[in-house]
């Protein structure tokens, strides 16, 4: 499964999870920055946009119960016939604190989920720690609370050159934020910039992630 070293996993068996769609209620912090010069080495190849997008998510309710998650896309896939009219994430790094969620990510969406420990509040200060890596974020929201309605697309590489595309739709409320990030790990230090970046805090949201569709050619 396509991943960076932080998401490599030798374990094969996990508690099973229900198939998509996965409805969930969430709180989250998202941030982005211009991709580092070396970020493309950890991206999916092909036409990309030099933007790194990452997020800390607290799933308050989901088909596998509550859990927390950190995921990031070193670069974004550029719009195309296969990707669609909007950029899409390609996620080689994703970690959760739920074993059934690990199964769900790997089985249903070709997402290389691994286990991690989380401490703190994803909309304030939170630390995620895994095997040989650590990420700490502090979100400082500002301005009014506003409605949000939109979607995030994913396009994960699969064997034989295919893509597993899926879409997560979200509605809720958010505030603009500045997000301070510190990340260490075998690859994270090369493409997840330390420092303070623009972002948003999703104060409350309802999300649904649909099934992956495989395209080739």
Automatic annotation (TrEMBL):
It comes from the Bacteria. Residues 1-14 have a biased composition (Basic and acidic residues). Residues 1-20 are annotated as: Disordered. This is Acetoacetate decarboxylase family protein.
């Amino acid at each position: 499964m396509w991943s960076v070293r932080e998401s490599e996993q030798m374990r094969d068996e996990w508690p099973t999870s229900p198939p998509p769609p996965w409805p969930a209620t969430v709180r989250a912090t998202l941030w982005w920055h211009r991709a580092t010069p070396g970020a493309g080495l950890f991206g999916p190849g092909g036409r990309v946009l030099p933007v790194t997008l990452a997020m800390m998510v607290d799933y308050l309710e989901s088909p596998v119960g509550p859990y927390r998650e950190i995921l990031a896309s070193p670069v974004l896939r550029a719009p195309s016939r296969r990707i669609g009219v909007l950029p899409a994430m390609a996620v080689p790094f994703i970690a959760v604190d739920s074993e059934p969620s690990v199964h769900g990510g790997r089985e249903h969406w070709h997402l290389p989920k691994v286990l991690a420990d989380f401490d703190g509040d994803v909309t304030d200060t939170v630390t995620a720690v895994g095997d040989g890596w650590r990420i700490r974020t502090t979100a400082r929201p500002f301005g009014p609370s506003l409605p949000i309605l939109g979607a995030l697309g994913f396009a994960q590489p699969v064997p034989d050159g295919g893509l597993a595309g899926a879409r997560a739709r979200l509605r809720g409320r958010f505030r603009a934020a500045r997000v301070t990030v510190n990340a260490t790990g075998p690859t994270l230090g090369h493409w997840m910039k330390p420092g303070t970046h623009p972002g948003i805090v999703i104060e409350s949201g309802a999300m649904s992630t649909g099934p992956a569709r495989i395209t080739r050619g």
